[in-house]
Amino acid sequence: MRLGSRIESAAHTDKNYLRPLSACRTPRPEYTRRMNPDATTNPSRPAAEFRTAPPDLPIPNRLNFALVAIVCAAALGLLWLGSHVGSWWVVGAVGVVFSYVLLTNYALLHEASHGNLQSNAARNYWLGLVAGALFPMPITLMRSTHQGHHDHNRTDVEMFDLYYPGDNRIIKYVRWYGILCGFFWPLVPLGAMIFSLAPQPIRDRIFGRSQPRGYLLNGIHQAAVWLVRGETLLIIGLFIALFWLLDLRWQNTLVLYACFAFNWSTRQYIGHAFSKRDVIEGAWNLRHNRLMSFLLLHGEYDLNHHRHPEISWYYLPRLSPPDASQPNYLKQYWRQWLGPRPAAEPEPVAVELSPTRQ
Question: Residue 152: CA atoms inside 13 Å, Cβ hemisphere, count?
Fold first, then answer.
Protein backbone atom coordinates (compact mmCIF):
# COMPACT_ATOMS: atom_id res chain seq x y z
CA MET A 1 0.00 0.00 0.00
CA ARG A 2 1.33 3.42 -0.90
CA LEU A 3 2.07 5.95 1.85
CA GLY A 4 -0.67 8.29 0.63
CA SER A 5 -3.20 5.49 0.82
CA ARG A 6 -2.08 4.60 4.35
CA ILE A 7 -2.47 8.19 5.49
CA GLU A 8 -5.88 8.54 3.84
CA SER A 9 -7.01 5.26 5.38
CA ALA A 10 -5.89 6.40 8.82
CA ALA A 11 -7.64 9.71 8.31
CA HIS A 12 -10.98 8.03 7.66
CA THR A 13 -10.70 5.46 10.43
CA ASP A 14 -8.83 7.94 12.63
CA LYS A 15 -8.23 5.74 15.66
CA ASN A 16 -7.02 2.68 13.76
CA TYR A 17 -3.91 0.86 14.98
CA LEU A 18 -4.07 2.45 18.41
CA ARG A 19 -5.21 0.88 21.62
CA PRO A 20 -7.97 2.74 23.43
CA LEU A 21 -7.67 5.23 26.23
CA SER A 22 -8.74 2.70 28.81
CA ALA A 23 -9.90 4.18 31.99
CA CYS A 24 -8.91 2.78 35.35
CA ARG A 25 -7.97 -0.25 37.33
CA THR A 26 -11.62 -0.81 38.37
CA PRO A 27 -13.84 -0.54 35.27
CA ARG A 28 -16.39 2.25 35.51
CA PRO A 29 -19.19 2.41 32.93
CA GLU A 30 -18.61 6.06 32.08
CA TYR A 31 -14.94 5.50 31.32
CA THR A 32 -14.63 2.04 29.82
CA ARG A 33 -13.70 1.54 26.14
CA ARG A 34 -14.41 -1.74 24.40
CA MET A 35 -11.29 -3.27 22.96
CA ASN A 36 -11.16 -5.07 19.64
CA PRO A 37 -8.90 -8.16 19.97
CA ASP A 38 -8.26 -8.21 16.20
CA ALA A 39 -6.88 -4.67 16.05
CA THR A 40 -3.22 -5.68 15.97
CA THR A 41 -3.68 -8.38 13.37
CA ASN A 42 -6.27 -6.73 11.16
CA PRO A 43 -5.52 -3.01 10.82
CA SER A 44 -8.55 -2.51 8.59
CA ARG A 45 -10.75 -2.81 11.65
CA PRO A 46 -10.99 -0.12 14.34
CA ALA A 47 -8.81 -0.59 17.40
CA ALA A 48 -11.58 0.56 19.69
CA GLU A 49 -15.03 1.99 19.88
CA PHE A 50 -14.45 5.27 21.65
CA ARG A 51 -17.26 6.71 23.70
CA THR A 52 -18.48 9.90 22.10
CA ALA A 53 -19.20 13.12 23.95
CA PRO A 54 -22.79 13.84 25.05
CA PRO A 55 -24.94 15.53 22.37
CA ASP A 56 -25.22 18.67 24.48
CA LEU A 57 -21.39 18.99 24.57
CA PRO A 58 -20.52 18.89 20.86
CA ILE A 59 -17.00 19.48 19.56
CA PRO A 60 -16.62 23.17 18.56
CA ASN A 61 -15.54 22.38 15.01
CA ARG A 62 -15.49 25.89 13.61
CA LEU A 63 -13.72 27.37 16.61
CA ASN A 64 -11.08 24.64 16.59
CA PHE A 65 -10.51 25.02 12.85
CA ALA A 66 -10.13 28.78 13.28
CA LEU A 67 -7.70 28.29 16.16
CA VAL A 68 -5.54 25.92 14.11
CA ALA A 69 -5.46 28.45 11.26
CA ILE A 70 -4.68 31.41 13.53
CA VAL A 71 -2.00 29.55 15.50
CA CYS A 72 -0.39 28.24 12.32
CA ALA A 73 -0.32 31.71 10.72
CA ALA A 74 1.00 33.32 13.92
CA ALA A 75 3.71 30.68 14.35
CA LEU A 76 4.92 31.03 10.77
CA GLY A 77 4.89 34.81 11.06
CA LEU A 78 6.92 34.69 14.26
CA LEU A 79 9.40 32.24 12.73
CA TRP A 80 9.92 34.70 9.86
CA LEU A 81 10.16 37.68 12.20
CA GLY A 82 12.62 35.91 14.47
CA SER A 83 14.97 35.37 11.53
CA HIS A 84 14.79 38.95 10.24
CA VAL A 85 15.19 41.16 13.31
CA GLY A 86 18.43 42.91 14.05
CA SER A 87 19.38 42.06 17.63
CA TRP A 88 19.41 38.92 19.74
CA TRP A 89 17.35 40.39 22.55
CA VAL A 90 14.54 41.01 20.03
CA VAL A 91 14.94 37.41 18.84
CA GLY A 92 14.50 36.34 22.45
CA ALA A 93 11.39 38.49 22.83
CA VAL A 94 9.92 36.97 19.67
CA GLY A 95 10.81 33.56 21.09
CA VAL A 96 8.80 34.23 24.26
CA VAL A 97 5.71 35.12 22.23
CA PHE A 98 6.33 32.11 19.98
CA SER A 99 6.49 29.82 23.01
CA TYR A 100 3.00 30.84 24.13
CA VAL A 101 1.55 30.48 20.64
CA LEU A 102 2.93 26.95 20.51
CA LEU A 103 1.42 26.17 23.91
CA THR A 104 -1.97 26.67 22.28
CA ASN A 105 -0.78 24.64 19.31
CA TYR A 106 0.11 21.77 21.63
CA ALA A 107 -3.31 22.01 23.26
CA LEU A 108 -4.86 21.63 19.80
CA LEU A 109 -2.57 18.67 19.06
CA HIS A 110 -3.67 17.15 22.35
CA GLU A 111 -7.32 17.54 21.33
CA ALA A 112 -6.59 15.80 18.04
CA SER A 113 -4.93 12.90 19.87
CA HIS A 114 -8.27 12.26 21.60
CA GLY A 115 -10.34 12.73 18.45
CA ASN A 116 -11.76 15.93 19.96
CA LEU A 117 -10.38 18.49 17.50
CA GLN A 118 -13.03 17.78 14.84
CA SER A 119 -16.11 15.58 14.89
CA ASN A 120 -15.16 14.32 11.42
CA ALA A 121 -12.38 11.74 11.69
CA ALA A 122 -10.58 12.80 8.50
CA ARG A 123 -10.54 16.49 9.45
CA ASN A 124 -9.40 15.59 12.96
CA TYR A 125 -6.45 13.64 11.54
CA TRP A 126 -5.33 16.27 9.04
CA LEU A 127 -5.64 19.21 11.43
CA GLY A 128 -3.81 17.14 14.03
CA LEU A 129 -1.10 16.51 11.47
CA VAL A 130 -0.74 20.28 10.95
CA ALA A 131 -0.55 20.98 14.70
CA GLY A 132 1.92 18.13 15.14
CA ALA A 133 4.14 19.47 12.38
CA LEU A 134 4.63 22.76 14.24
CA PHE A 135 5.51 21.02 17.51
CA PRO A 136 7.11 19.00 15.73
CA MET A 137 5.67 15.56 16.47
CA PRO A 138 3.83 13.03 14.28
CA ILE A 139 0.16 12.92 15.25
CA THR A 140 0.13 9.11 15.28
CA LEU A 141 3.07 9.09 17.68
CA MET A 142 1.32 11.65 19.86
CA ARG A 143 -1.80 9.52 20.06
CA SER A 144 0.13 6.46 21.19
CA THR A 145 2.32 8.22 23.76
CA HIS A 146 -0.59 10.17 25.20
CA GLN A 147 -2.73 7.07 25.46
CA GLY A 148 0.16 5.42 27.28
CA HIS A 149 0.16 8.35 29.68
CA HIS A 150 -3.57 7.94 30.41
CA ASP A 151 -3.19 4.20 30.95
CA HIS A 152 -0.16 4.53 33.27
CA ASN A 153 -0.81 7.83 35.01
CA ARG A 154 0.78 7.94 38.51
CA THR A 155 2.25 4.45 38.18
CA ASP A 156 5.96 3.98 38.81
CA VAL A 157 6.90 4.60 35.16
CA GLU A 158 5.37 8.08 35.45
CA MET A 159 6.36 8.79 39.05
CA PHE A 160 8.77 11.65 38.33
CA ASP A 161 7.87 13.70 41.40
CA LEU A 162 8.28 10.95 44.00
CA TYR A 163 10.93 8.44 44.99
CA TYR A 164 11.19 5.21 46.96
CA PRO A 165 13.85 4.68 49.66
CA GLY A 166 15.90 2.48 47.35
CA ASP A 167 15.80 4.84 44.35
CA ASN A 168 18.89 6.67 43.15
CA ARG A 169 18.18 10.19 44.40
CA ILE A 170 20.67 11.79 42.03
CA ILE A 171 18.96 10.28 38.98
CA LYS A 172 15.57 11.28 40.36
CA TYR A 173 16.63 14.90 40.87
CA VAL A 174 18.41 15.16 37.52
CA ARG A 175 15.35 13.78 35.72
CA TRP A 176 12.94 16.02 37.61
CA TYR A 177 14.85 19.25 37.16
CA GLY A 178 15.62 18.28 33.58
CA ILE A 179 11.86 18.28 32.95
CA LEU A 180 11.42 21.62 34.69
CA CYS A 181 14.34 23.22 32.82
CA GLY A 182 13.15 22.36 29.34
CA PHE A 183 15.00 19.18 28.45
CA PHE A 184 11.83 17.14 28.02
CA TRP A 185 10.86 18.73 24.68
CA PRO A 186 14.02 17.79 22.69
CA LEU A 187 13.37 14.13 23.49
CA VAL A 188 10.10 14.26 21.53
CA PRO A 189 11.39 15.14 18.03
CA LEU A 190 14.54 13.12 18.68
CA GLY A 191 12.47 10.08 19.68
CA ALA A 192 10.28 10.52 16.60
CA MET A 193 13.33 10.57 14.35
CA ILE A 194 14.81 7.46 15.96
CA PHE A 195 11.49 5.60 15.88
CA SER A 196 10.90 6.54 12.24
CA LEU A 197 14.35 6.00 10.77
CA ALA A 198 15.94 3.26 12.88
CA PRO A 199 15.62 -0.41 11.77
CA GLN A 200 13.35 -2.60 13.85
CA PRO A 201 16.06 -4.24 16.04
CA ILE A 202 17.26 -0.82 17.20
CA ARG A 203 13.71 0.45 17.55
CA ASP A 204 12.75 -2.53 19.70
CA ARG A 205 15.86 -2.13 21.83
CA ILE A 206 14.97 1.48 22.61
CA PHE A 207 11.17 1.48 22.55
CA GLY A 208 10.30 -2.21 22.97
CA ARG A 209 7.74 -3.55 25.38
CA SER A 210 10.44 -4.59 27.86
CA GLN A 211 11.98 -1.11 28.00
CA PRO A 212 10.98 1.46 30.67
CA ARG A 213 9.57 3.74 27.95
CA GLY A 214 7.96 0.92 25.99
CA TYR A 215 4.48 1.58 27.39
CA LEU A 216 4.37 4.83 25.40
CA LEU A 217 4.71 3.20 22.00
CA ASN A 218 3.06 -0.19 22.43
CA GLY A 219 -0.01 1.23 20.71
CA ILE A 220 1.83 1.56 17.38
CA HIS A 221 1.59 -1.63 15.38
CA GLN A 222 2.32 -2.75 11.83
CA ALA A 223 1.04 -0.22 9.29
CA ALA A 224 1.09 2.57 11.88
CA VAL A 225 4.90 2.36 11.98
CA TRP A 226 4.94 3.34 8.32
CA LEU A 227 2.36 6.01 9.02
CA VAL A 228 4.66 7.55 11.65
CA ARG A 229 7.51 7.41 9.16
CA GLY A 230 5.41 9.14 6.53
CA GLU A 231 4.36 11.86 8.98
CA THR A 232 7.97 12.37 10.06
CA LEU A 233 9.09 12.75 6.45
CA LEU A 234 6.30 15.26 5.85
CA ILE A 235 7.46 17.28 8.86
CA ILE A 236 11.07 17.23 7.66
CA GLY A 237 9.94 18.32 4.19
CA LEU A 238 7.82 21.10 5.70
CA PHE A 239 10.75 22.58 7.62
CA ILE A 240 13.02 22.36 4.59
CA ALA A 241 10.38 24.29 2.64
CA LEU A 242 9.93 26.84 5.43
CA PHE A 243 13.67 27.51 5.67
CA TRP A 244 13.72 28.12 1.92
CA LEU A 245 10.47 30.08 1.52
CA LEU A 246 10.77 32.21 4.66
CA ASP A 247 14.56 32.54 4.54
CA LEU A 248 14.86 31.28 8.10
CA ARG A 249 18.15 31.29 10.01
CA TRP A 250 18.76 28.10 11.92
CA GLN A 251 20.31 29.87 14.93
CA ASN A 252 17.33 32.20 15.33
CA THR A 253 14.84 29.39 14.78
CA LEU A 254 16.65 27.34 17.41
CA VAL A 255 16.28 30.23 19.90
CA LEU A 256 12.54 30.37 19.27
CA TYR A 257 12.15 26.63 19.80
CA ALA A 258 14.41 26.77 22.87
CA CYS A 259 11.98 29.28 24.39
CA PHE A 260 9.11 26.94 23.60
CA ALA A 261 11.06 23.94 24.91
CA PHE A 262 11.35 25.57 28.33
CA ASN A 263 7.81 26.94 28.43
CA TRP A 264 6.27 23.62 27.42
CA SER A 265 8.52 21.26 29.37
CA THR A 266 8.44 23.17 32.64
CA ARG A 267 4.65 22.91 32.89
CA GLN A 268 4.17 19.37 31.54
CA TYR A 269 3.80 17.66 34.91
CA ILE A 270 2.15 20.50 36.80
CA GLY A 271 -1.27 18.88 36.52
CA HIS A 272 -0.03 15.66 38.16
CA ALA A 273 2.78 16.59 40.54
CA PHE A 274 2.15 15.36 44.09
CA SER A 275 -1.39 14.23 43.30
CA LYS A 276 -2.82 10.94 44.55
CA ARG A 277 -1.50 7.67 43.09
CA ASP A 278 -4.54 6.85 40.99
CA VAL A 279 -4.69 6.26 37.23
CA ILE A 280 -7.79 8.44 36.86
CA GLU A 281 -7.92 10.64 39.93
CA GLY A 282 -4.19 11.36 40.00
CA ALA A 283 -4.46 14.87 38.59
CA TRP A 284 -5.41 18.41 39.59
CA ASN A 285 -7.92 21.00 38.51
CA LEU A 286 -5.91 24.18 38.93
CA ARG A 287 -6.95 27.83 39.05
CA HIS A 288 -5.38 30.18 36.48
CA ASN A 289 -6.11 33.62 35.03
CA ARG A 290 -8.47 33.85 32.07
CA LEU A 291 -5.83 34.68 29.47
CA MET A 292 -3.62 31.73 30.33
CA SER A 293 -6.64 29.47 30.67
CA PHE A 294 -7.58 30.30 27.08
CA LEU A 295 -4.01 29.93 25.79
CA LEU A 296 -3.86 26.49 27.43
CA LEU A 297 -7.38 25.66 26.18
CA HIS A 298 -8.35 24.98 29.79
CA GLY A 299 -5.45 22.56 30.13
CA GLU A 300 -5.27 23.41 33.83
CA TYR A 301 -8.41 21.27 34.30
CA ASP A 302 -6.40 18.07 34.02
CA LEU A 303 -8.45 16.09 36.52
CA ASN A 304 -11.65 16.78 34.58
CA HIS A 305 -9.85 15.75 31.41
CA HIS A 306 -8.66 12.43 32.87
CA ARG A 307 -12.15 11.72 34.12
CA HIS A 308 -13.73 12.55 30.77
CA PRO A 309 -11.13 12.39 27.96
CA GLU A 310 -13.89 12.25 25.36
CA ILE A 311 -15.10 15.78 26.17
CA SER A 312 -13.74 18.83 24.35
CA TRP A 313 -11.51 21.38 26.06
CA TYR A 314 -14.30 23.92 25.62
CA TYR A 315 -16.44 22.35 28.35
CA LEU A 316 -13.84 21.25 30.91
CA PRO A 317 -14.52 24.08 33.42
CA ARG A 318 -18.22 23.16 33.40
CA LEU A 319 -17.48 19.66 34.69
CA SER A 320 -16.37 20.92 38.10
CA PRO A 321 -18.97 21.48 40.83
CA PRO A 322 -19.08 25.07 42.14
CA ASP A 323 -17.48 24.15 45.47
CA ALA A 324 -14.67 22.00 43.99
CA SER A 325 -11.15 22.65 45.24
CA GLN A 326 -8.79 24.29 42.74
CA PRO A 327 -5.21 24.91 43.88
CA ASN A 328 -3.51 27.96 42.46
CA TYR A 329 -1.62 27.21 39.25
CA LEU A 330 1.39 29.40 40.06
CA LYS A 331 1.70 28.03 43.59
CA GLN A 332 1.59 24.50 42.19
CA TYR A 333 4.26 25.45 39.65
CA TRP A 334 6.69 26.82 42.23
CA ARG A 335 5.94 23.89 44.51
CA GLN A 336 7.53 21.64 41.90
CA TRP A 337 10.87 23.41 42.20
CA LEU A 338 11.25 22.18 45.79
CA GLY A 339 12.13 18.81 44.31
CA PRO A 340 10.82 15.24 44.44
CA ARG A 341 9.27 13.88 47.62
CA PRO A 342 9.20 10.42 49.23
CA ALA A 343 6.43 8.19 47.91
CA ALA A 344 3.77 7.67 50.57
CA GLU A 345 1.19 5.65 48.58
CA PRO A 346 1.34 2.31 46.76
CA GLU A 347 1.53 2.19 43.00
CA PRO A 348 -1.84 2.03 41.23
CA VAL A 349 -2.48 -0.76 38.76
CA ALA A 350 -1.92 0.37 35.18
CA VAL A 351 -4.34 -0.41 32.40
CA GLU A 352 -2.72 -3.12 30.27
CA LEU A 353 -3.53 -4.71 26.95
CA SER A 354 -5.48 -7.94 27.14
CA PRO A 355 -3.52 -11.15 26.40
CA THR A 356 -5.28 -11.51 23.03
CA ARG A 357 -3.84 -8.17 21.94
CA GLN A 358 -0.34 -8.78 23.17
Answer: 22
pTM score of the predicted model: 0.84
Per-residue pLDDT tens digits for 67-79? 999 999 999 999 9
In contact, 267 and 299? CB cutoff 8 Å: no
Residue 32 covered by a domain: no
Compute φ and ψ for 287, nearest 5 degrees: -105, 125
Residue 16 phi, psi (nearest 5): -60, 155
Mutual orientation of helices 200-207 and 187-197 as an angle, nearest 10°? 140
The residue range of the domain holding 256 is 3-23+38-48+56-357
Q: 206 Cβ partners below 8 Å, 6+ apart?
A: 194, 195, 198, 213
Distance separating alpha carbons of residues 141 and 147, to the nearest angstrom? 10
Q: Say which range, 157-171, 192-206, 260-274, 286-300, has the weakest mean pLDDT.
A: 192-206
Q: Which residues have CB under 8 Å from 139's CB, separation 6+?
A: 109, 112, 113, 125, 128, 129, 131, 132, 231
